Amino acid sequence: MEYWLLWKKLRKLLQKKKATTVSAGVIKYQHKYAIGPKGVTINEILQETGVFVQMLSSDSTSETITFRGPQEKVGLGWQ
Question: Which pLDDT belongs to residue 71?
Fold first, then answer.
């Protein structure tokens, strides 16, 4: 499924309040493991669970990773 279609679906879920947001601090140098080579891991999380993973740009000093998606699946984004 196209990334923009998944994003559109996620926005609808958030608007209907059937979704949740969870943020966590993860050491900056470990963000690359959540992204994966060429974004493979982060895209797999989105496609398999419908959970959107948000990290600020590499220029940012923030260590926060935010997961947004269906309440019953947000926990799967952590695994």
Answer: 79
Q: How is the beta sheet containing 64-70 ordered, strand by strand? A: 19-25, 64-70, 52-55
Domains of the chain: 3-78 (3.30.1370.10)
The predicted structure's pLDDT at residue 13: 64
Close Cβ partners of 28 (under 8 Å, ≥ 6 residues apart):
61, 63
**Cβ 76 vs Cβ 44: under 8 Å:** no
Q: Is the pTM of this model over 0.90?
A: no
Structure tokens at 51: 């959970």
